[in-house]
Structure formats: structure tokens, C-alpha cells
Design brief:
Elements (H helix, E strand, L loop, with lengths): L6 E5 L6 H16 L11 E5 L3 E6 L4 E6 L8 H10 L1 H15 L14 H5 L6 H14 L7 H7 L9 H15 L5 E4 L8 H13 L5 E7 L5 H12 L2 H5 L1 E7 L11 H15 L7 H7 L1 H6 L1 H10 L1 H16 L2 H15 L3 E7 L6 H18 L2 E7 H7 L12 E4 L5 H19 L3 E6 L10 E6 L5
Parallel strand pairs: 1-2, 5-10, 6-9, 6-10, 7-8, 8-9
Antiparallel strand pairs: 2-3, 3-4, 11-12
Helix pairs in contact: 5-19, 6-9, 11-16, 14-15
């Protein structure tokens, strides 16, 4: 109690005298007290019993109480006497006395010896050497620089499957414990170097069935588990060659979403169109592609164009151009047109990734889920929604997540942090070896006056291949 051993209890078999247990308990207490000062013995009380008799006393004396166990009934004098000697309050009070004894009356913190609070508040100047290395390291460690994600995916990606056997055993035990409360189907993603079967099967099934309302696929995991990096890696590396030829992707970054997503339909459609243009080689500004995107609208107004062209072909062309401009300015109409063009006209697969949704707060994640459902019905596309696993588990049986209760969600486990850092550092060193000169010099500022010359470090990059 209070960090001290204060009571030793020794239990013996019924055929062993309680006195033997009492002597052994005293020896145990003596051994524990040897860890403290000569006149300080916190392990003071001992208790021994064999089920028939009970002995209580101090470690350096004969028993103070010798009681018969059958007499220790509620309300009996023997039980009350024993409780007065060793109840929790009495033991805690003794432990508090021990704590007061070992406490130092005067405490000196290490920083007080070096300048006190002024030292804590002081700021060191910027390390210029670190400033030179910072852009290189942030190139591979910052999540805000997606330009280098392809290089990380191809040369420094760590799969969650790359865990030790010990980690795998612990993970299996946790899964067995959680399986009893999971009433929805959750599959663990198993990415290898060149494939991921579960996502491939889901996209292939979507291609075959082409559901009228589209399909929503939730990818869940902890923040920082690599959901965004996995999705990007799947698009760039893990797709089969056949599937890669017939898929069109668009990534919508929810890091740039408006604060309130309850009325963010236009933002979502606009971000989808921008992401589609970045990820695909189709020229959305060409006349032939625009006619294909807005073909349904053109077909609805064909009779008007035809009637107007009979009297004035120029007016018909102007009206058609005005309608086309109006549709282009409508993000919702453009997103729906792109989906109809890809899914219907080209017979390809359209995949919209709701990226970085897990970085939103709880309310934002639930609103993003509703947005994903709305966009899925609008475009009838294959929508991948990244969500925090704790949010999914807590709210999967409540609105609005209960609408996805019969669906299959994918779970991704975070890789080992040390493996991620190791590969990123190796990639950084390779970059330095390729970009830096063979010999580098760096001059550090002297901490003292001019009588100590500045130091110049010379070092070279050596590659052992």
C-alpha cells in the first residue's frame, strides 16, 4: 500500500501447523525489509493460517493473536479484534507514515541546478544543419506532400502483413476477443507485393453486376494505419493489368472539405470532377467528350434544337452552346454525366475514393458517410469510403451507419512503426546519395567567444552496394 509491502500472508495446508507458516511469513517480511534502511521496516505485519487456526502479529515478534478459524464469524469478538489490527484503514495509515518518512523535505529539480525556469523558457536558435535536411526528410515523412506518394508506394511501402510471429499471435487473440461483438462482416485486407484479393474481388463483382444504385465499400482502420497510402498503392501497383485498363479513378480529399458537410453536395461533385481530371488522361474540354458526357441532356432537348434549326441553324447552334456551358457550370450535372459516360458509354468501371475522411471529427465522419451514399446513388459508381474503425464499431448499428449493416467492410491494420521509419530513412539516404555531392562540408557556429575557432565538419556519402 502506498508503494510499500506492509502485510505478508502465508497460507498452509490443513495438515501443516500454522506456526510454521507464521515463521516463514516472518522470514519473507525480513527479506523484504532488507531492501530499506537499517531502522526502516515497512513490511511490519504477518498473518498465517492453515484453515483451522490463524496467527497474526509483527514480523519481529511472537503472534499477537491466535484465533480459531471457525470462531471468525460475523459479529464475533475474535473477528472484530482481528479487523481492528489489520483492516484496510489501519494498513493504509501505517503505509502513509512510511511514505512520510522516505519523502525528502526539500526537493531539487535538475533544471534548478542549470538556471531554473529561465532555462526552460529559453529558446535555442534554429539549427541550420537541420534546416538543410528538413526538406529532404519531409519529402518522405510528411503526409501533406502527395507528390512523392508514388515513390513511397513503389520503394518504401510497408504492408501490415509484415509483422513478427509474436505480433501475429497477439493480433489473432484480439480478433477472437472482438469477434463476439462484431455482428457485421469485417475482412482484413491482405496486400502483398503485387495484389490484394479482397478489393479486386469486390471491384470485379461490381463490374459484373453493375448495381443500379452503385456500391459503397468502407475501408476502416485507426488514424495513421495507412488507408490512404494503401488505396493509392492499390491503384498504382496492386491492380491486375486487366482491371487497370478498364478502371477510372477519382480521389476526393476531405482535408479540403468545408467545415459543415450537411450541404456539401456541390463541393463533393466539384472535387470529384477535379480529381477525375487529375487521375485520367481523358480531355474533358474536347467537344466529342463533352457531347458524350451530356448526351442524355442533349437527347432531351433534341426536338427543340431540331425545330429551331429548321428556321435558324445559327440560333440552334447558339442555344446548344449555351446549354453546354450551363451544364459545365453545374458540378452535380457534370459528375453524373461523367459517370454515365464511363459506366454506360465506355463500359468501364468508375471508382470514387473519399480520402482522409478518418481525419474528420465524429460528426464530420457521419456526414461524410451520408454524402457518400448520396454520391453513390447519383453516379451509380463504386465508392470507397475511408473511416476510422472506432467510429464504425460504435455507430454501425445506429443511423446513418445502420444502412450499411449488411455490407462487407475492409479493415487495414497499421504496420510496425519502426519498419515504416526504417524504410523511409533508407529512401531518404538513397535520395541524398543521388542528389548530394560526394564531399560535403558544414560549418557550425561556436558557442563561445572568438578565442575558440569555429568548427568545420567534412563528411562524404559512401554507398556500399
Amino acid at each position: 500500500m502506498r508503494g510499500f509491502p506492509v502485510l505478508v500472508v502465508e497460507a498452509k495446508a490443513p495438515d501443516v501447523p500454522a506456526e510454521i507458516g507464521y515463521r516463514e511469513a516472518c522470514l519473507y517480511a525480513r527479506h523484504l525489509n532488507q531492501a530499506y534502511a537499517a531502522d526502516f521496516n515497512p513490511c511490519r505485519f504477518v498473518l498465517a493460517t492453515n484453515g483451522h487456526s490463524l496467527l497474526f502479529g509483527c514480523w519481529d515478534s511472537a503472534p499477537l493473536e491466535t484465533l480459531s478459524v471457525p470462531n471468525l464469524r460475523l459479529g464475533s469478538r475474535d473477528l472484530e479484534d482481528l479487523r481492528k489490527r489489520c483492516h484496510a484503514g489501519a494498513l493504509d495509515a501505517y503505509a502513509m507514515e512510511c511514505l512520510k518518512r522516505v519523502r525528502s523535505e526539500r526537493t531539487t529539480y535538475p533544471y534548478d541546478l542549470a538556471g531554473g525556469a529561465a532555462l526552460l523558457k529559453a529558446r535555442r536558435p534554429v539549427n541550420t544543419f537541420a534546416a538543410d535536411l528538413s526538406p529532404i526528410l519531409s519529402r518522405y515523412f510528411s503526409s501533406s506532400t502527395p507528390d512523392n506518394s508514388l515513390e513511397i508506394i513503389e520503394r518504401a511501402y510497408v504492408s501490415s502483413a509484415e509483422v513478427t510471429e509474436y505480433d501475429r499471435i497477439l493480433e489473432s487473440l484480439l480478433k477472437e476477443t472482438l469477434s463476439g461483438r462484431n455482428d457485421s462482416i469485417v475482412r482484413e485486407l491482405e496486400p502483398s507485393r503485387h495484389a490484394e484479393p479482397h478489393v479486386t474481388q469486390a471491384i470485379s463483382d461490381f463490374d459484373q453486376s453493375r448495381p443500379i444504385g452503385g456500391q459503397l465499400q468502407i475501408v476502416q482502420g485507426a488514424v495513421g494505419s495507412g488507408k490512404s497510402l494503401f488505396t493509392r498503392r492499390y491503384k498504382e501497383v496492386l491492380q491486375s493489368p486487366v482491371l487497370a485498363k478498364q478502371t477510372r479513378w477519382s480521389f476526393v480529399d476531405f482535408n479540403a472539405s468545408p467545415p459543415n458537410l450537411s450541404q456539401a453536395e456541390k463541393w463533393l461533385c466539384s472535387s470529384f470532377v477535379e480529381g477525375f481530371q487529375r487521375e485520367n488522361s481523358l480531355d474533358l474540354s474536347s467537344e466529342s467528350v463533352l457531347r458524350s458526357i451530356y448526351s442524355r441532356n442533349i437527347l432531351k432537348r433534341r426536338a427543340i434544337y431540331k425545330e429551331l434549326a429548321a428556321t435558324s441553324p445559327e440560333q440552334a447552334a447558339i442555344l446548344r452552346a449555351q446549354d453546354m456551358s450551363k451544364w459545365q457550370d453545374d458540378p452535380e450535372e457534370t459528375a453524373r454525366g461523367i459517370a454515365e459516360y464511363i459506366l454506360g458509354g465506355r463500359k468501364e468501371i468508375l471508382i470514387a475514393v473519399m480520402d482522409n475522411v478518418d481525419r474528420l471529427d465524429l460528426e464530420g465522419q457521419l456526414q461524410a458517410f451520408q454524402l457518400a451514399l448520396w454520391f453513390m446513388k447519383l453516379t451509380r459508381s463504386f465508392v470507397i469510403l475511408q473511416m476510422r474503425d472506432e467510429t464504425y464499431e460504435r455507430y454501425k448499428n445506429r443511423p446513418p451507419l445502420d444502412t450499411f449493416r449488411t455490407g462487407i467492410s475492409f479493415h487495414i491494420s497499421p504496420p510496425r512503426f519502426i519498419d515504416v521509419v526504417k524504410k523511409r530513412l533508407e529512401l531518404s539516404i538513397q535520395y541524398l546519395q543521388a542528389q548530394a555531392q560526394n564531399r560535403q562540408s558544414y560549418q557550425i557556429e561556436s558557442e563561445s567567444e572568438s578565442h575558440i575557432p569555429n568548427l568545420i565538419w567534412n563528411f562524404s556519402f559512401t554507398s556500399y552496394m
